[in-house]
Amino acid sequence: MKSLTLALIIFSIFCFSFTFRFDGWIEYDLDEPTDLAKFSMIVPFMDISFTASGGFKRDNLVIPPYADKLWYNYWYWDEGFIEWKTDLFLLQAGVKQHSIGPGNIYKLFVDEKGFSYPSYFFRNYGKLRIEILWGGLRLLENDSKPVKGFNYRSIIYSPVNGLEIAYEESILYLNRFFDPYYFFIPIPAPGIQEFWHLKAPWGYPTSKLDDNSMIGAWVRYTTDNYSIYSEILLDDINMNRFFRPDSYQNPDKIAFLVGFSGKSGPYKLTFEVAGASAFTFQRISSNKPYEYVYFENSNFPIEKNMIGYKHGENNIACSIALEYSNNNWLISAAYEGLIYGTRTPDKPWHGGTMPSGTHWLVGDVKSRYSLFARIAYSFKNLLKEIYELKTGFRFGFVGEKPFIGFDFSSAFLINQ
């Protein structure tokens, strides 16, 4: 796949027009600067396009060799994928990030966090849509961290114009990079998972094969001017409350999202509330590292490490974003309030024993408020080869830490 992609890109560069992009920014939080410089090339070929990108960045989480000489910047590859888009379907294959779900600010199942991985994504268009995503998160065992992959599927039905009703599911699995059963068999992933645990000749002991499946649903209604939507994720649900109310009650592990987005003239408003109960995305056994994160046992902040909902378990978050766009100017601001308790996805039950009943906002409860504001200007009609040139100034605070930053992006069309 990699050699074929490279050969097609080189062939297209010499035969067709292509786009070269640069995106960069620098921020300073009165403590340490962070920055990014990303270079991208997009080569179209009929309904197919080839994208490759990479660059340098400083995040103060990864410390490269000769850090002082490089101002703590390190080289990173970003994305390299093929996209085939028609009126009937969209197909993407290669190394890429993905973001799926009805939310504009929060995504419960899959969201972009800056980490690209080998993947395949398919979506068709029509009254009945199907979305299929496979992602390979770890190709080889690394420091006793097992090979790791996941699959996501959704079925979206539109009974009338503007209304969408969806079923969705995700399965995270260890010791396999790709699992054909979850990818090809069109039955719910929890059913496939349980099939392997039957006392049958094809069964596997849970110590060898224990996956983490989640199901959910969302509803969205969209008009020309606004959209309202809600979503729910279920990792585990307590059925004892219905069948054995006098017995032990296991914790519900649930995440949710409710949102609204609307436009009026040059203004756009988005309001979302999301959250998750305690223990929702964590492992339940110390020797089964299937918590729903990209990198287990790492020092990555939760907001950068979750595969889906960025704030993880045991919290509630509320965001409101306002955007004004007119001619060359873009002014945007987003405010978020977050209340969270103990979040330890790698420690089962926060280091204790499995409790009875559902828990939410437990442990060391804290709050954090954030503001992001940006003023940007787009230069137009400079040269026919430059079809995008933007610069922006941004500022705000995260918790008690203020920051300021500048960003710049440009796109050049190279004609053959």
What's the helix and strand layout?
Layout: H1 2-15, E1 18-28, E2 33-45, E3 48-58, E4 74-85, E5 89-96, E6 117-124, E7 128-138, E8 148-157, E9 163-174, H2 180-184, H3 189-195, E10 212-222, E11 226-236, H4 240-243, E12 253-264, E13 267-276, H5 302-305, E14 315-326, E15 329-340, E16 366-378, E17 386-398, E18 401-414
Quick structural gist:
This protein is mostly beta strands and 416 residues long. It has helices at residues 2-15, 180-184, 189-195, 240-243, 302-305; strands at 18-28, 33-45, 48-58, 74-85, 89-96, 117-124, 128-138, 148-157, 163-174, 212-222, 226-236, 253-264, 267-276, 315-326, 329-340, 366-378, 386-398, 401-414. Strand 4 and strand 5 (89-96) form a beta hairpin.
Primary descriptors:
about 425 residues, mainly beta, 18-stranded antiparallel β-barrel, 5 helices, 18 strands, about 10% helix, globular
If you had to describe this structure to a student in words, what would you say it looks like?
This protein has 416 residues and is mainly beta. It is 8% helix and 49% strand. The protein contains five helices and 18 strands. The chain has helices at residues 2-15, 180-184, 189-195, 240-243, 302-305; strands spanning 18-28, 33-45, 48-58, 74-85, 89-96, 117-124, 128-138, 148-157, 163-174, 212-222, 226-236, 253-264, 267-276, 315-326, 329-340, 366-378, 386-398, 401-414. It has an 18-stranded antiparallel β-barrel. A hairpin with a 2-residue loop joins β2 and β3. It is globular, with a radius of gyration of 23 Å. The chain starts with a helix and ends with a strand. The model has no long low-confidence stretch (mean pLDDT 91).
